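Can anyone check this?
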Amino acid sequence: MASVAAWLPFARASAIGWVPVARNPLPTPKVREEHKRGDNKMLINVSGRRFETWRTTLEKYPDTLLGSNEKEFFYDEETKEYFFDRDPEFFRHVLNYYRTGKLHYPKHECIQSYDEEMSFFGIMPDLIGDCCYEDYKDRRRENSERLLDDKASENGDSTPAVTIREKFWRAFENPHIGTTALVFYYVTGFFIAVSVMANVVETVPCGIIPETNENPPCGERYELAFFCLDTACVMIFTAEYLLRAYAAPDRCKFIRSVMSIIDVVAILPYYIGLVITDNDDVSGAFVTLRVFRVFRIFKFSRHSQGLRILGYTLKSCASELGFLLFSLTMAIIIFATVMFYAEKNVIKTKFTSIPEAFWYTIVTMTTLG
């Protein structure tokens, strides 16, 4: 216990931004006679907000700041209270730890500030209760990933680019460093928007043809124009992908990344369509493959910080979303089974099997009115 008391003031000093310069150890704090009873109330002032608790409540954890004699350094003789220039919103969680022995994490607060406050009061932030452990772990992992990304980008910007590959990669990752990179950034964004819009417009009917009295979609009526437009977009996307693959510091990691897979899926249907023949056996498969062109809309995530933040959020909430999907699937199966057996003996029923009842169950569960 004595060894802990020896190093705690120095660790706590580093947490608030100053380091004591002294060759001799700090003096032993003076304990007043009225505080030796251990059963009196304590008044704690945290940045103007006052908290009251029993001294015995704090002394349950003598290895912490409030449970040890070190708190006497913060005692104000005039006001007869302990004053801490800290965040009062976090302090209520500190005080609840002394009362209940369980540490809880406020999920809407900054994870770094939370850890700093806990460290100042000598409480290990890892002592999180089971109810908050998953939230704390996810927020800490997400914060660590962001700090690593920021550190990598700062290091990349601080060191001058030497090779052509480094210049290309820096231009792709931070297009605002130069005019050429910025122009390419907006050009690729423009072609992504054009490609997505063309994919939608080509399915719209373009009017009745007088000779045949047919109303074909625009994709069939102006097939050559849409093909040329799609070719131009794919050429831009292919050039971007090849340049990124060439400039990537770690090509294997780049090829396995999610954004790289999206790039490949977005352009792959075009090249398969060039080599595929007008064979009835493969035409249906090609039509299905063309659906993957809609993945080009995900290329916008390279151009939007908000979409990247959304990706981080979905990644951190993957377990919760997975449980929600599992619960919804269970409910659909249960209610579809009930509907099937309830309508089984009805003449001309639409629920001829449990899978046939899935659609009715899904629509009923996910719509109102």
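Reply from J.R.: I decoded it. The beta strands are 41-46, 49-54, 75-76, 81-84.
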